[in-house]
């Protein structure tokens, strides 16, 4: 049975599986209409059909229904997607990623790499102001990155930074002892983002950011935990140059106010969309995609995703401190069955955390373990497992998390493991098993990373992994990936990392999950992004 942490009632396995089979859509009376609209695009492409309906209009309040609430307001110390989605409208980075995950300017208008001197020099855009009216200066960048290198969960990625100089108000020089492309990739990584804030902000707020201030198109107004987060348009926002792409380019806030509401139940979230309680719903279930397409007045924004689901092994305690038990689980898994149920067939099997369409993908990443139930049973026998209880920790914030856990439970019971599913509320999941590593098995999903170092280092290096994995051989490879300057050589190294990951099995990649969002037809300029981040700049309302 599935135990829900923070929820009084248990979910019966038989009932859940029954619902998985019978549930085919949101609502019984689906209407066919010539007015139905949908917006689907490939990774990196921006559909034009939803951007040319009318001239942009300024004003109005837009409400977004999210699957999970924020956990904190300090992006320097957060690794949670539900924190980043609203707050990356408030705070920005020195450089960022475009639609295709390439590095582009943001607060810096240009940069120069000196590979011999091992320096990267950034020239800041002038006239950019924070929400407190202070002009962005080099001292703010140095303060922000020094703080990030001290306090961020991702601080190990910046180990190659020896020092930061500010020769004038608009120049920042980073002195490195590692590869500059690794450094740039770390700067633009939106996971636990290295956002720029005014110098001294955290100290003014008792050591941690409780009122975020940035340079973004929207300003933080308030957060009523569990109810709503409110952002307001920043009238003095100065956008970057070039067409809007990814997090960068010409961004403009047309909306007076944006409200983010946590609605964890996907059915309730869809009902809120239908009744116009919310204007945009993110984390739409795959099973509801066709219903949205056929519903007058609603638009589906869908794109293939770079997000990937994973199963982590808790290696701090039995039984998965035993490599034979980890291998047994890997051979027991039928990934296609997980894709069919957890994503309603709209996702793809993931052989590795590196997406196949990226430059970093190699034969090592394509090599996957194929299901072999008999071999899995033999490995369980060799491991000396005697029916001890095993729990899969998962979250109820994302429907595909819980469905994946239930499918895994069945597959692992088929090889003789005594498995239960423990379902956590989102905040408890993040502060508990996800960050403490105190679990047998844990499933969740990871958002895209521009550089494979950011995927592998965080989860595999002994200095940053949560689950107890510690391999000197892996550490050496990961450290080489940072220090090596030749890109082709780095690609070879990360192929070796994937091969060692396949051997040691601290985690297993499961599936790539699609981005599916929906909005009212009067919401204009909105497009889904394969990186999985809703962007509400350049969006306006055209209510009749």
Automatic annotation (TrEMBL):
The terms describing its cellular component in GO are: ATP-binding cassette (ABC) transporter complex; periplasmic space
- The answer on whether this UniProt entry bears the keyword Transport reads yes
Quote the InterPro entries the UniProt record gives.
Answer: Peptide/Ni-bd, SBP_5, SBP_5_dom
Keywords for the protein's UniProt record, in alphabetical order: Signal, Transport
Q: Where is the composition biased (Polar residues)?
A: 43-53
Q: Where is this region: Disordered?
A: 30-61
GO MF entries = peptide transmembrane transporter activity
Biological process (GO) annotations held by this record are: peptide transport
Domain named Solute-binding protein family is located at 103-466
- Please list the residue ranges that the record marks as compositionally biased, kind Low complexity: 30-42
Domain of life of the organism in this record? Bacteria
> PANTHER family, alphabetically?
OLIGOPEPTIDE-BINDING PROTEIN APPA (PTHR30290:SF9), PERIPLASMIC BINDING COMPONENT OF ABC TRANSPORTER (PTHR30290)
- Indicate the family of this protein: Belongs to the bacterial solute-binding protein 5 family.
Protein name in UniProt: Diguanylate phosphodiesterase
Native organism is Brevibacillus reuszeri
């Amino acid at each position: 049975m599935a135990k829900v942490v923070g929820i009084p009632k248990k979910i019966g396995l038989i009932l859940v599986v029954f619902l998985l089979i019978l549930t085919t859509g949101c609502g019984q009376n689906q209407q066919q209409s010539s007015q139905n609209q949908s917006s689907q695009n490939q990774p990196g492409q921006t559909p034009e059909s939803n951007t040319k309906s009318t001239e942009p209009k300024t004003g109005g309040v837009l409400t977004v229904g999210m699957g999970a609430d924020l956990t904190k307001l300090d992006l320097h110390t957060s690794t949670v997607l539900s924190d980043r989605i609203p707050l990356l409208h408030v705070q920005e980075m020195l450089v960022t990623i475009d639609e295709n995950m390439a590095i582009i300017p943001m607060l810096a208008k240009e940069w120069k790499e000196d590979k011999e001197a091992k320096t990267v020099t950034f020239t800041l855009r002038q006239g950019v102001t924070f929400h407190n009216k202070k002009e962005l200066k080099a001292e703010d960048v140095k303060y922000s990155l020094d703080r990030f290198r001290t306090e961020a969960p991702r601080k190990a990625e910046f180990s190659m930074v020896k020092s930061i100089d500010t020769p004038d108000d608009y120049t920042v020089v980073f002195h490195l002892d590692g590869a500059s492309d690794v450094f740039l990739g770390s700067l633009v990584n939106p996971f636990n983002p290295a956002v720029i804030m005014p110098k001294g902000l955290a100290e003014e707020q008792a050591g941690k950011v409780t009122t975020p201030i940035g340079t973004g198109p929207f300003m933080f107004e308030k957060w009523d935990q569990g109810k709503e987060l409110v952002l307001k348009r920043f009238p003095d926002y100065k956008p970057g140059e070039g067409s809007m792409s990814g997090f960068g380019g010409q961004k403009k806030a047309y909306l007076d106010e944006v409200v983010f509401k946590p609605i964890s139940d996907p059915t309730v979230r869809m009902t809120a969309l239908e009744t116009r309680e919310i204007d945009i719903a993110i984390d739409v279930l795959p099973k509801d995609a066709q219903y949205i397409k056929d519903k007058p007045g609603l638009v589906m924004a869908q794109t293939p995703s770079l997000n990937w689901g994973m199963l982590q092994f808790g290696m701090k305690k039995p039984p998965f401190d035993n490599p034979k038990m980890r291998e047994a689980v890997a051979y027991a898994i039928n990934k296609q069955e997980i894709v069919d149920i957890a994503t309603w067939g709209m996702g793809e099997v993931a052989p590795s955390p590196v997406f196949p369409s990226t430059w970093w993908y190699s034969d090592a990443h394509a090599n996957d373990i194929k299901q072999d139930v008999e071999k899995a049973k033999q490995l369980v026998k060799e491991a000396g497992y005697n029916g001890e209880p095993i729990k899969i920790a998962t979250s109820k914030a994302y429907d595909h998390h819980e469905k994946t856990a239930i499918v895994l439970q069945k597959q692992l019971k088929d090889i003789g493991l005594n498995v239960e599913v423990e379902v956590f509320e989102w905040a408890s999941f993040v502060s508990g098993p996800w960050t403490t590593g105190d679990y047998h098995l844990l499933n969740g999903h990871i958002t895209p990373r521009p550089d494979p170092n950011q995927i592998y280092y965080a989860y595999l290096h002994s200095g940053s992994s949560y689950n107890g994995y510690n391999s000197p051989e892996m550490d050496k490879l990961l450290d080489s990936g940072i220090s090596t300057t030749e890109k082709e050589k780095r690609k070879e190294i990360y192929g070796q990392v994937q091969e060692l990951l396949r051997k040691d099995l601290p985690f297993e990649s499961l599936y790539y999950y699609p981005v599916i969002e929906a909005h009212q037809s009067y919401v204009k300029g909105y497009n889904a992004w394969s990186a999985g981040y809703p962007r509400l700049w350049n969006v306006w309302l055209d209510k009749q």
